[in-house]
TrEMBL record:
GO terms for biological process: polyamine biosynthetic process. The chain crosses the membrane at residues 24-44, 56-77, 89-111, 123-146, 180-206. It comes from Ilumatobacter coccineus (strain NBRC 103263 / KCTC 29153 / YM16-304). Keywords: Membrane, Polyamine biosynthesis, Transmembrane, Transmembrane helix. Gene3D superfamilies: Vaccinia Virus protein VP39. This is Spermidine synthase. SUPFAM superfamilies: MFS general substrate transporter, S-adenosyl-L-methionine-dependent methyltransferases. It comes from the Bacteria.
Length: 520
């Protein structure tokens, strides 16, 4: 049997035995560090959400940066293991990796408040500074462990294969366990800190057994971990509640005691006046209510894709007693916050279904509602499967003859997504109206609204309500300003020109994030 020569010991450590690590310990190290990297990758999306939202760009940036860290770490760890005894490398790698994992929290929070508003570039900046260091350091552990175990050249292939397989198994475990269990069990920051502390403790324990590093070196790295933990505690989170889907906060209106604003990630999503449910603060909410008021009368059956702060359900309850309402909301924690902190009583007239909007829509009977309100699109978080022609057809099945579908859309000044969405809805409905909002009309990102039906829509009545629109938060001077922009209605031949050349969004082709990026 041919044996490889053991690495020469460092002068600082003296003579070291050439024996490899116990098999269980080698497996635990490669599995655990790979799992930790993937846990951090999954949690990165939630930690970044308050600053960059949740989109395909966000996850693309995170995955790319983490993969870069894994590649660089694997290379650097292998090179280092060829020049330094791996037993000297492993304790500081674990300790430093844990410290850097904890440091992701203060780094992202600090840079997130100061790094501007650029989309893809901002995502890369936050991910690179926040997560690349920890991913790189932790990914250096497996090659160091493998180097230490390669004492028998005749079994090199099986040794590398076995430990590589365990490393991949750790990554898989970290992915599935985080996504299916951990995110629903504890706050994201708590999970990151726990991962970091476990790594730090592992590094200290490994050092205590072998004592292959000087005490002052380990104390220095422990101080880094302590500093990271202090930063994680000292720098406040922008979230009041971290759910599996949102970083959310409920803000009190400083000018109105009964006013509440729901903040989802980095966007003001909904506003509610607890004393006056007919007060509609947001432009897009007033446009969706316009559709209800113009196209329906008396009690109605209405379904909502997305709940928010339940602003329109409150309005309908106050103005259309006897109406039956169904809210489809994917985030059960959000529902709980709205009920407990924004005083929503679902009563007997409101049913709330927690689950994916498309799957939940299929639970509704055919021809069962008069109105479907779509409020599931954010500026960065657009569930593409709720924007496709196939889904619009499913909405149509739920609507009664003559029913209306009204949706809120956020887009940039180029309105690429609005155009494509209007073209998609027009594939299903004969009558489509787009109400372009003040934001796009003035050259910045903002809300627009879309209304669709198989029956003619009273565009004149919508126009009258739009022309008379008054924002409750406007001053008398703003309301009287003849140049204020309240919106523009696009329908008929103008709509044909508006959507000319726009792509129809389908389940098979839904470049929603790219359309939004092109409009910014």
């Amino acid at each position: 049997m041919t044996r490889a020569e053991p690495s020469a010991p460092s002068d600082e450590t003296g003579d070291l035995a050439a024996d490899p690590l116990p098999g269980w310990l080698a497996i635990a190290l490669v599995t655990g560090t790979s799992a930790a990297v993937l846990v951090l990758e999954i949690l990165a999306g939630r930690l970044l959400a308050p600053y960059v939202g949740v989109s395909l760009e966000t996850f693309t940036g995170i995955i790319g940066v983490i993969l870069a860290g894994i590649a660089v770490g694997a290379w650097a760890g292998g090179v280092a293991a060829d020049h330094i005894d791996p037993r000297r490398l492993l304790p500081p790698l674990l300790l430093l990796g844990g410290a850097l994992a904890i440091a992701t929290i203060p780094i992202v929070r600090t840079l997130g408040d100061t790094s501007g508003t650029g989309g893809g570039i901002r995502i890369l900046i936050l991910t690179t500074f926040g997560f690349l260091p920890s991913a790189t350091v932790l990914s250096a552990v497996p090659p160091a462990v493998i180097k230490l175990q390669l004492l028998d050249l005749a079994s090199t292939g099986s040794t590398v294969g076995r430990l590589s397989a365990w490393s991949t198994a750790g990554a898989l475990f970290g992915t599935f366990f985080t996504g299916y269990v951990l995110v629903a069990a504890a706050a994201v920051t708590t999970l990151i800190v726990i991962v970091g502390l476990v790594l730090v403790a592992s590094g200290i324990a490994l050092w205590a057994v072998g004592r292959v590093r000087k005490v002052n070196e380990m104390l220095s790295l422990t101080a880094v971990a302590a500093l990271s933990l202090f930063g994680a505690v000292a720098i406040d989170s922008p979230c009041e509640t971290q759910t599996a889907y949102y970083c959310l906060s409920v803000l009190e209106d400083p000018t109105l005691d009964s006013g509440r604003t729901l903040l989802l990630d980095d966007l003001r999503h909904s506003y509610v006046d607890l004393d006056d449910p007919e007060r509609l603060e947001f432009w897009y909410i007033r446009r969706l209510v316009d559709a209800i008021e113009v196209e329906t009368s008396g009690p109605i059956d209405i379904a909502y894709l997305g709940g928010g702060a339940f602003t329109i359900p409150r309005y309908v309850r106050a103005t259309r007693p006897g109406s039956e309402q169904i809210i489809l909301e994917i985030d059960g924690d959000l529902v709980e916050v709205v009920e407990n902190e924004i005083d929503f009583d679902r009563g007997d007239d409101v049913e709330i279904i927690v689950g994916d909007g498309r799957l939940s829509m299929r639970e509704l009977p055919t021809d069962s509602v008069d109105v479907v309100i779509g409020d599931a699109f954010g500026s960065r978080a657009v569930p593409f499967h709720l924007a496709t022609r196939e889904f619009i057809e499913e909405v149509d099945e739920v609507l009664r003859p003559g029913g209306i579908y009204a949706a809120n859309i956020i887009d940039g000044p180029e309105e690429r997504f609005v155009e494509a969405y209007a073209a998609t809805v027009a594939e299903v409905y004969e009558h489509v109206v787009v109400v372009r909002g003040p934001g796009p009309l003035q050259g910045f990102r903002g809300n627009s609204a879309l209304i669709a039906s198989h029956e003619p829509i009273d565009v004149a009545a919508l126009g009258e309500r739009l022309a008379a629109d008054v924002d409750p938060s406007d001053t008398p001077e703003q309301t009287a300003d003849p140049d204020r922009v309240v919106g523009e209605i696009v329908t008929g031949d103008a709509l044909v020109d508006y959507v000319a050349g726009a792509e129809v969004i389908t389940d098979d082709f839904a470049p929603v994030d790219q359309l939004l990026a092109a409009s910014s």
